[in-house]
Amino acid sequence: MAIRLYLSSQGLGDNPELLQLPASSQKRALIVLNALDPYPSARQCALPDEMADLAALGYQSRELDLRNHFQRSTDNHQHNLDKTSMLTSLLAQSDLIWVTGGNTFTLARAMTQSHFKEALNRASSLTQHTITYGGYSAGAAVAGPDLQGIQFMDDPNITPDLYDPDVAATSLNFVSHRIIPHVQSHSDDGVNADKALNYLTERNLEYRALQDGEVWVTSV
């Protein structure tokens, strides 16, 4: 099955109805908060709010902490394969993977170190239902081909505990356009988004600018 993408600049955006499933179906969501790993207080407060937002759409949700699935070069090969299989199984049992904002580079490293993309692709091939990858801010930006321009919005050098500093911040490359959230936002995010857009424009690099509230729905 294809992976459906629901990419938002901020929160659920203006089209949360596009995440709703038939009333008769069991709606299962996993919430990924790893973009907030550098900010423990914000991370702690985020989960109940995200769960409440998804509950309003009929989802039963729980956290998926990618740090529990980090693979290390010092672990044996079979152990790391088992970790990928476990993550694949969790993703295959879910309808929605909801990925929050925070530091995009931290999130990308978490996804790289846990082999998230590999597990999600495997999960989508094993299920009879469509898995939706939904994300906002950092969760949306990481879906692009790389993170060029995002260095104006997030610190690329933050390495929280448990993160391997040698692991690259590799994006998911689900779409060909670099995703810049918070465009025209009345905050520092908006100013930094303008810097990112100028950087990409000067280099003739493809991008998709998202204003707060705007949602881009597509598929892989």
What would you say this structure looks like, in words?
The chain has 220 residues and is an alpha/beta fold. The chain has a single domain, classed as Rossmann fold (3-Layer(aba) Sandwich). The chain is 33% helix and 16% strand. The chain is built from six helices and eight strands, in the order ββαβαβααβαβαββ. The chain has a six-stranded mixed beta sheet with strand order 3-2-4-5-1-8. Strand 2, helix 1 and strand 3 form a beta-alpha-beta unit. The longest helix has 16 residues, at 40-55.
* Spatial sequence of strands, sheet with the most strands: 3-2-4-5-1-8
Overall outline: globular
Number of H/I helices: 6
CATH fold description: Rossmann fold
Average per-residue pLDDT, rounded, comes to: 94
- Please give the number of β-strands: 8
Question: What structural class should be given to the helix and strand makeup?
Answer: alpha/beta
Assess the beta-strand content as a share of residues: 15-25%
Low-confidence stretches: none
Helicity range: 25-40%
Q: What is the name of the CATH architecture? A: 3-Layer(aba) Sandwich
Distance between the termini: 10 Å
